[in-house]
Amino acid sequence: MKRLNGVGLQDVQAVYSGPEGRLWELLMGEQIHIGGLRSSMDLAGKAGIQPGMRGVDLCCCTGAGMRFLLRFREVEHMHGVDATPAMIELGRQRCRNAGLAQRTEFTLAEAIRTGLPSECADFVWGEDAWCYVEDKAALIAEAVRLVKPGGIIAFTDWVEAGPGLSDAQAERFMRFMKFPTLQDLKGYPDLLVRNGCAVQTAEDTGRFAPCVDLYLNMVEMQLTYDALRIIGFDSAVMEAIGSEMRFIQQMAHEGRIAQGLFVARKL
C-alpha cells in the first residue's frame, strides 16, 4: 500500500465543499465514480443485493449510491456516512427531492468510527471513495463490525494494479487526487480475510482507462466552458488539471491504476 504524507481528511473535505468537487460531478455525473450506473449494477449483482435489505454506505458523498440501491435494487433502507458536512446537506436535499427521505438516513462521521450499532446492516456499500480514507485497516474493520453474520461488504475503489506505481508516480497521482493512502488489488482481500470474511470477488473491472478517456474527451470537446465557469475561468488552473488528468490517463492505460471491485461475506 502506498502512503502520502501531508494529505488528510481536511483536504478531502475542501475538495468536496468547493469547485473541484463540482468539477468532478460535471464530468462523472451525480454518481461520482468510474462507470456510473453500469458499475453500480455490476457491483450490486455480484454482491447479491436483494429487495428488503438494509445497508450502510460508507463515504456516501451525496447519497447517489443509496438512491440507486433504493430505486434499482429495492432495498428497504440506506444509512449514509460521510465526513464532509456540505455533502451530507446536499445528500439530504437530493433524497427529499427524489421522494426517498423516509428510506434514507445520513450521519456526519468518519468512516472508520461511524458510531452506528454493531451488526445493524445486511450489507456495507462503497463506490470509489475508500481511497480517501487514510486507515484502510480500520475502515475494513468498521465495515465488518457493521454487518450481521453472513452479511456482505461490497465496494469498488481506485487501487494500484499491474506493474504498480513508482514512488514519484504515486506521489504525483495521490497528491492531485488527495489520497492519503492507496491500496492495491491484493491488500483489500487480505484485510477482509483478517477481519473474518470470505472473499468472493476481487477483480480489476477494466473500466478505469476507458472512462478517463471519456472524461478528457468531454472536457476538451464539449464541456470546456462549463468546466472553466466552475473554476472561475482560470485558464492556468484548467491547464494544470488537464495535465494531471492526462497523467492519470497514461497510468491507467499502462495498467498501474485501476478500479477494483470487491465482494466479501462476513463469516
Molecular structure report:
This protein has eleven helices and nine strands. The chain is of the alpha/beta class. The strands form two sheets. The protein has a seven-stranded mixed sheet with strand order 4-3-2-5-6-9-8. A two-stranded antiparallel sheet has the order 1-7. β5 (121-127), α6 and β6 (147-160) form a beta-alpha-beta unit. α3 packs across α4, α7 packs across α11 (235-253) and α9 (208-221) packs across α10 (224-230). The two termini are 25 Å apart. The model has no long low-confidence stretch (mean pLDDT 97).
Could you say how many structural domains there are in total? 1
Determine the N-to-C terminus distance.
Answer: 25 Å
CATH class: Alpha Beta
Q: For the residues shown, what is the average pLDDT?
A: 97
Helix-and-strand structural type: alpha/beta
The quaternary state of the protein chains shown equals single chain
> What is the name of the CATH superfamily?
Vaccinia Virus protein VP39
User: What is CATH's topology name?
Assistant: Rossmann fold
Our Rg estimate from Cα atoms comes to 18 Å
Largest sheet: 7 strands, mixed
Strand/helix succession: EHHHEHEHEEHEHEHEHHHE
CATH architecture: 3-Layer(aba) Sandwich
How large a portion of the residues is in β-strands, by DSSP E? Answer: 15-25%
For the largest sheet, list the strands in their spatial order. Answer: 4-3-2-5-6-9-8
Gross geometry? globular
Query: Low-confidence parts lasting 5 or more residues at pLDDT below 50?
Result: none
Residues in helices, as a percent range: 40-55%
Number of helices: 11
Query: What is the tally of beta strands?
Result: 9
